[in-house]
Amino acid sequence: MIKKTIINILLALVAMAGQAQVKSGLDLCLRDEATGEWLIGLFDDYAIFDCEYWEYAEAGKGRVVLTKDVQRKEIQLKKNSIVIDGVKHKTSVLISKFLPDYPIKDEATFDGTILDNEQEATLRVVHRSGKQGILVSTYFKHLVKDEQTNYNANSDSLGRCEVKIPLVGQTSSMLYTEATPKIYRLDNWMWIPYVITPGDKLLFFIDDVAGCIYAMGKTARMTNEFLNYPLYGYNMDYNERKSMDFISFIKKFDKELNSLTQRRESILATHPLLSKRYKDYTTGMIMSFFASDLGQLRFNRSKVKREEIISEAKRRDLFNPDVPYLVLERYDNFLDDICDVAIEKHCVIGSGVPFLQNILKKARDGQIKLSTEEVNLIESELPDEAALEVPSTALLDSLGVWIEGFYLTDTLEALFDSRSDLAIEILNYYNQKEIEAIDLLLNLPPMLQEIALARRIRERLVHDVKPLEDYEMKELRKNVTNPYLLGEVLATNDKLIAARKAAEAIVTPDPRTLAELTEGEDIFRKIVEPYHGRYIYLDVWGTWCAPCRDMMGYVPQMKEQLKDLDIVYLYLANRSDDEAWKTAIAQYHLTGENCVHYNLPDKQQSALERYIGINGYPTYKIVAPNGNLLPSFAPHPNHPDAIRYLIEELKEELK
Q1: pLDDT tens digits, residue range 216-227?
Q2: Could you tell me the pTM of the whole model?
Q3: Residue 174 contacts residue 196 (beta carbons within 8 Å)
Q4: Where among 503, 538, 560 does a domain terminate?
Q5: Tens digits of per-residue pLDDT, 401-433?
Q6: What are the C-alpha distances in Å from 556 to residues 165, 466, 571?
Q7: Which domain holds residue 605?
Q8: Is the same domain home to 59 and 144?
Q9: φ, ψ at 60 (rounded to 5°)
């Protein structure tokens, strides 16, 4: 019995010894002298190879065995070389701040392919200090949605962290960790640019002890080169740009662009083996910063003409960048802006003659039904349409006013208002003009045009809170064929369809009880009267208001965190279509026994807002249990703790 126990103990000790982590006693990064790449990192607790972390199965003098899952790699360390699984590499120990210049040319270009579906890429960051809790941040802009996803992670007990990033194409981003500013900084810029490919891996080694940064992976060369020779675009001051006319803007930017170009040419002359990707990326960076500010000139309406912006973009060939869309910093801003410029120029306000001629043609072709009387009416009104006095584009620009569309005579306006199918024709015509504007005025490359249209259509869905009509769906499928782009728009459309269906069950207070009221205070008192004794969180918003919609995303979490408080959530919609209003209520889950919604006629809403003191959207206020409106603004839904504090403070005052 004793003998058996001793044997069991010995076996257990052997097993425990086998499970103990093997240490290497090493601390070095090796560079492949033939390719110039960072080949391998060998540290005491783990090794880095092929962007993966490996453990040590064995460690002896001049030899280690790495293991990961079921893989094993035999490493032999020799003077100025390393043998990995029998393959010898001439190496040197990396001690420089950044990776030295690569010894060979690299003519590889960026890949502009847009995949049909997202694939995950893996970004890993390791800090040599091994400190836990170091913040690492990166971000990615969405190809179709006008939004950005931020990825934040904290390092583990060995200083490491990783994020999985869904991508549809080779994409650029920026990396920041709390340790990097002491090592890398360009003026006040502390973010490190990189490019990553769907399905690939990229690893950053941040030596926060010796002060070094190295990148490993298929696209790492450009980043390693950029760390040595950083070159961003010129970032014009917002207020400075807003005050400029077109000539002043070009003169100012040309001066800065010339300076950046000279610096770039000097770098390339001194370091002729820099990769094509470095050359293309730095050129693209300079170009996209300029393009972004050029597009923003559309807001300088009294100083800059739309045709000047489009002509300048064409003159500099901004629609045919050498670098793919997803790799260009800020190019998404430019693409959205230049499309708006084209639409503003092409769809400026005028008479409805072209539209009406199109309606008559559709009637003749049997595409829409018009009675003989309606045809005669439209034809008889055409002379009056042509004679309508409409302000010129020059006058609108000089006044800083932008308006698009067309006028109809009162007679024709009544006709189109009386028939929903004809009203849809107005939208159909205008949507066609948008596509026509982008097609004719910009002549974008096919994929870039699909991206631009997908972004616009999805943004219109979000803004209007209405799913696509049949004719709009046909136009979408005709003009956007890439499966990923099309799928993203359809996904947004499907959510709106589901929300519209759910909206059918939404019951709102009968506004007819307020019909005779015209004064803002009277309307307010009538609305809040049923909720005396309870706190009211008042939200004045509109379906058309992007900041309002952004805040709606925080409402479910806010309500959950404040569910122990007796709060009524009162929503007052401004100038919102009834159908879109109810769809938005369902879409953002603004329902429940403690949620009350009003979408009043414009005059009543305006009177109510004057009483409340609205000077922007969204606006949030608190109504006390006695029905009195607090004079100060309330915190936004993304700050539920602040809302709680305000209500708790009010409770104390009312005791």
Answers
A1: 999 999 999 999
A2: 0.86
A3: no
A4: 503
A5: 555 667 788 888 888 888 878 877 887 888 888
A6: 26, 22, 14
A7: 511-654
A8: no
A9: -140, -175
